[in-house]
């Protein structure tokens, strides 16, 4: 599972964890339709900003990697 630093204001941890678990599973499957879905979802997803959330820069970097088809 991908790890992100917790910061004072960051992306909602539950939303990011749910997305990352699904995206990592899709990319690991190597099934073209699942990989394509993960890539498309990474480009379209948005997360709430909350107190004690995940570091936004780290999550954004992860999303760019997923969008290119690379695992987190």
TrEMBL record:
InterPro entries to which the protein is assigned, alphabetical: DivIVA_domain (IPR019933)
Protein name: DivIVA domain-containing protein
Phylogenetic lineage: Bacteria, Bacillati, Actinomycetota, Actinomycetes, Micromonosporales
């Amino acid at each position: 599972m991908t790890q992100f630093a917790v910061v004072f204001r960051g992306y909602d941890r539950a939303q990011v964890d749910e997305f990352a678990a699904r995206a990592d599973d899709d990319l690991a499957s190597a099934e073209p339709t699942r990989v394509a879905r993960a890539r498309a979802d990474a480009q379209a997803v948005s997360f709430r900003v909350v107190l004690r959330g995940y570091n936004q820069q780290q999550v954004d970097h992860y999303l760019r990697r997923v969008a290119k088809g690379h695992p987190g």
